[in-house]
Amino acid sequence: MLDEMILSGLKVYAWHGVYEEEREKGQNFIINARIFYDTVSVAETDSVEDTIDYAKVSLYINEYMRVHQFNLIETVANKLARKLLIKFPLIQSIELEVMKPEAPIPVPFSNVSVRVNRGWHKVYIATGSNMGDSEQFIRDAMDNLDSDENCRVLRKAKMYESRPYGGVDQDNYINSAFCMNTLYSPLELLTRLQEEEKNAGRERNLKWGPRTLDLDILYYDDLIMERDHLRIPHVDMANRDFVLLPLSEIAPYKRHPILGLTTLEMLSRLKETYVETLKEEE
To answer: For residue 241, how many other CB atoms are within 10 A of its CB?
Structure first.
């Protein structure tokens, strides 16, 4: 359970709106925020350097809203919430309300507002490659994601070598896994991972075929979802030791939200194994 800081009634004069008059003359906006974070360690040091400075948060909101210009308050709320999470690393999640009390509405009203909830999500990603410099492709992908302001790589597993899975004659694979926090939604994250695969020269010509880079979402918090091109948790992870073995290094007791089994428990149930060689990190 996280603690919260409440910032309410912050007035900002800015130039957001669909109509030309709004964008030229501007109007008042009111910002309310509930900021969720851990205050226990802060209470021990009693230092402003170890906490979220609400004065700096207020100034940042004021500056961001005055410098940028958007048509919709939905856009303002979403972009501002994400920027606050990036700017202030101690914030775990935020509930942000953008109020527009002077909106051009032709009937009497007291206020119109949009409220969003945004936060960091913990995800686990499996990696694989059997073309080119496989280990470098995997390392580059992890580094690129860690450089993305919407991601923070937390832990990385070692590299493993495994036999091909799926019946296609091809070279052995190099596999690993990593954990990171992300602000991306599941579908945004899928798109971002596919960008990394494309940058590595990935071509989707043959199912189970060779590839320069494969990045699969295993877990997204404890979310259970099914879409045409994305199923979370990963649909076949419980049958793949080349996924579970590296995952067991970084999340041995992470519990599958459908099966109810930990990584180690799923690994112990496997009868057929593909991993042959442990590739030690340099």
So the answer is: 21
Task: State the Cα–Cα distance between residues 42 and 2, nearest whole angstrom.
Answer: 13
* Alpha carbons 38 and 92: distance in angstroms, whole number: 8
pLDDT interval class at 205 (50, 70, 90): low
Q: Is the pLDDT of residue 282 over 50?
A: no
Cβ(175)–Cβ(278) under 8 Å? Answer: no
Instruction: Report how far apart the first and last C-alpha atoms of the chain are (Å, whole number).
Output: 39
CA atoms within a 13 Å half-sphere pointing along the CA-CB vector of 101: 10
Exposure string of 124-134, with b = 16+ CB inside 10 Å and e = fewer, is bbbbbbbbeeb
- Catalytic residue status for 279: no
- DSSP state at residue 49: G
The closest of 238, 222, 220 to 230, measured between CA atoms, is 220
Question: Per-residue pLDDT for 133 more than 60?
Answer: yes
Of 277, 280, 206, 216, give the one whose Cα is nearest residue 243: 216
Share of the chain above pLDDT 90, in %: 80
Is residue 250 classed as helix, strand or coil in its secondary structure? helix
Catalytic residue among 79, 83, 100, 198: 100
Residue 225: predicted pLDDT: 96
Q: Which two tokens stand for residue 127?
A: 């990696």
Cα distance between residue 62 and residue 65, in whole Å: 5
Spatial CA neighbour of 163 closest among 151, 154, 172, 153: 172
Contact indicator for 187, 230 with CB cutoff of 8 Å: yes
Q: Which amino acid is at 64?
A: Y
Tokens 């021990």 sit on residue: 44
Answer yes or no: are the C-beta atoms of 174 and 130 closer than 8 Å. Answer: yes
What the block records as the tokens of 162 is 């495994």
